[in-house]
Amino acid sequence: MAEIDCGYALEAVEATSVASGDIDKTFRSSCIDLVSAALGGKILGFSDEWFAEAANLLNPAAPIRLPGKMVYTGAWYDGWETRRHNTAPFDWVVVRLGVASGTVEGVEVDTAFFSGNHAPAISVEGCFSQNDDEVLSWQGGRGGWEPVLDIRECGPSQRFAWKLATAATEKKKQYTHVRLNMYPDGGIARFRLFGHAVPVFPDDAGAVFDLAAAQNGGVAVSCSDQHFGTKDNLLLPGRGKDMGDGWETARSRGKGHVDWAIVRLGAPGYLQNFVVDTAHFRGNFPQQVRLEAVEWRGGGEPGPDAPGWTAVAEPIKCKPDHEHPADSSVTDRPFTHVKLTIVPDGGVKRLRVFAKRAV
């Protein structure tokens, strides 16, 4: 932990540093980025953004560099950068999560391309509130914030991450908002808050809704390939903006090749119907998709060849840039995971799994 005397004490939080090369495999297979702009994460306020906008922090894409590009305030940076010589203990940005609420497993701060103007240290605080205005009124003060991650040192142009030790051992706290603090000023390219959505389910047990949606706790836990677009995009809201925010695999050359992605539903459910959307995939959509499901009671997550996978819909012949609906052929037993298989490869924008919760 960084020794920074800023007059704003934070209770120590037990957390383990994660090597930059291990961040994705540590968090991406079991968690979602709760503050991603693609999920609906939103910047509510900040202390300063003179050199670069705070909204860049939540961009799901990797940061980029444009050497030599100058704007009114100076060199252009793909991140959040504040003025020099901050007289307050820290600069801050308040973020509302893109889900109703969430529990946190880990934090990532990426200072890519910030060198000499990077953030020396950060901390993260969280709260649970339904009042955005009240949360924002606390600004850089104590308010109702509690520590998610205490002060941690950063450095130039590198991904930093910490895994919370309490994630698996204690009852997890739910947050609706977080505040990223930067000591005392500088630049950060990206901010990720890895965790799990805590959805607000309807009281009506017969209600049908999308149990695969990330906002309802769905997680894409594994896939065969994600060369051009990550599997996590399958579960995002809306139909996206272009091919870049879908799941797309590399071109296959082998006979009989298929690609697959496995989704853990936000809750066990009785499957009713599906939508497989190939929006924006016009010359690279799959020829066919298949849907299977399993009620998994084993440890970890089921693999593609795990016992118990059951076909739950007729194979779908795909069209370009099209929503493909399908009814579930098995509605009388609950499932925990769905496997989407694409034949032989290609791109899918979204997968919707409409179901009744098994309560």
UniProtKB/TrEMBL annotation:
It catalyses: allantoate + H2O = (S)-ureidoglycolate + urea. Keywords: Hydrolase, Purine metabolism. Residues 40-197, 217-357 form the Allantoicase domain. It is an enzyme of class 3 (hydrolase). Pathway: Nitrogen metabolism; (S)-allantoin degradation; (S)-ureidoglycolate from allantoate (aminidohydrolase route): step 1/1. The keyword Plastid does not apply. InterPro entries: Allantoicase (IPR005164), Allantoicase_dom (IPR015908), Galactose-bd-like_sf (IPR008979). Gene3D superfamilies: Galactose-binding domain-like. GO terms for biological process: allantoin catabolic process; purine nucleobase metabolic process. GO terms for molecular function: allantoicase activity. Belongs to the allantoicase family. NCBIfam families: allantoicase. Utilization of purines as secondary nitrogen sources, when primary sources are limiting. HAMAP family: Allantoicase. This is allantoicase. It comes from Lasiosphaeria ovina. The lineage of its organism: Eukaryota, Fungi, Dikarya, Ascomycota, Pezizomycotina.
